[in-house]
Every structure is written in structure tokens, then in C-alpha cells.
Specification:
Cofactor: Mg(2+)
Keywords: Autophagy, Cytoplasm, Cytoplasmic vesicle, Cytoskeleton, GTP-binding, Hydrolase, Lipoprotein, Magnesium, Membrane, Metal-binding, Nucleotide-binding, Phosphoprotein, Prenylation, Protein transport, Transport
CATH superfamily: P-loop containing nucleotide triphosphate hydrolases
Mean pLDDT: 83
Largest sheet: 3 strands, parallel
Shape: globular
Oligomer: single chain
CATH architecture: 3-Layer(aba) Sandwich
Main location: cytoplasm
CATH topology: Rossmann fold
Strand content: 15-25%
InterPro entries: P-loop_NTPase, Small_GTPase
Radius of gyration: 21 Å
Subunit structure: Interacts with ZFYVE20. Does not interact with the GDP dissociation inhibitors ARHGDIA and ARHGDIB.
Helix content: 25-40%
Low-confidence stretches: 155-160
Length: 163
């Protein structure tokens, strides 16, 4: 992706309907703004080019960013351009077993996809939706505590504001 984009994808998981809000950001010149795209994310698909080992190193950077900033975010590693490997296996620049070991280490799901042919794209998003439903059912979501600006009782309110 060049720049950033948003799309909503409606998925069915059993008898439930889940709408995934999907932000895509790909150009490194937007890196400074990237935090706004993944703040509060419950899932992140971190992509790398199967034919480019440096892109896998860059993906590791983003995984680290997500782990440091979004504690509850599940990570899915996504190798792209698998269609190029179908044409010529020698084009693979990232060893599958190295990526699988890394995915195991960070507890991520691993997919190899092709935007050109659509290979494994639907399966990836279906897994994200299923995991969201499964983990949301068991996860107790608590809202952050905040200040009630409408509260008018208590010693603090009167002592600091009404003398």
C-alpha cells in the first residue's frame, strides 16, 4: 500500500457477524503517523515480501512496536507475493522455517498469501475474525478509569474549587 487506507470487511463467524475495521499503511514516509493507525488494535497483520529478506527484518521491527505499544493485540505474520514463488521457487528470499520459528516465538499465526491470485487472503481474515470472537468471549474488557467531570460531591472538589 502506498499511503494509508481504511476498509470495513464484514465476516461471518458461526452465527455471529463481525465487522473488521482494516487500516492499511505501507509507505515508510508515513511511519511517524503510524501509531494512530494501530492504537487500540485487537489484531495486526504484519506483512513482508516473501522474495525480500530485508522486508522480513522490517516486519520484525513492526512486531516489536506492536508488542511494546498494544499489549492486547494479536499478531498475524503474512508473507506476500506467494504467486512469484509458484513461478520460481528460487525467488524465495525468506526461509519458511525461520519465519515459522519466529511466529512460534512471538505466538503469531503465519500465512503466505498472494494479492494477485487471492491465495490464502480470505483464510487470513477469517482466522482474524474467528480469533476475535473466540477471545472476546473469554476476555473481560474493562474500561479505563477516568475523571467524572460532572461529579459535584466530595471534599476534593470543594476544597480546591469552591473557597
Amino acid at each position: 500500500t502506498i499511503g494509508a487506507a481504511f476498509v470495513a470487511k464484514v465476516m461471518s463467524v458461526g452465527d455471529q457477524t463481525v465487522t473488521l475495521g482494516i487500516w492499511t499503511a505501507g509507505s515508510e514516509r508515513y511511519e511517524a503517523m503510524s501509531r494512530i493507525y494501530y492504537r487500540g488494535a485487537r489484531a495486526a497483520v504484519v506483512c513482508y515480501d516473501l522474495t525480500d529478506s530485508s522486508s522480513f527484518q522490517r516486519a520484525k521491527f513492526w512486531v516489536n512496536e506492536l508488542q511494546n505499544c498494544e499489549e492486547g493485540c494479536r499478531i498475524y505474520l503474512c508473507g506476500t507475493k506467494s504467486d512469484l514463488l509458484e513461478e520460481d521457487r528460487r525467488k524465495r528470499g525468506v526461509d519458511f522455517h525461520d519465519v515459522q520459528d519466529y511466529a512460534d516465538e512471538i505466538k503469531a499465526e503465519l500465512f503466505e498469501t498472494s494479492s494477485k491470485t487471492g491465495q490464502s487472503v480470505d483464510e487470513l481474515f477469517q482466522k482474524v475474525a474467528e480469533d476475535y470472537v473466540q477471545f472476546s468471549a473469554f476476555q473481560v474488557m474493562t474500561e479505563e478509569k477516568g475523571v467524572d467531570l460532572g461529579q459535584r460531591s466530595g471534599a476534593y472538589f470543594y476544597s480546591c474549587c469552591h473557597h
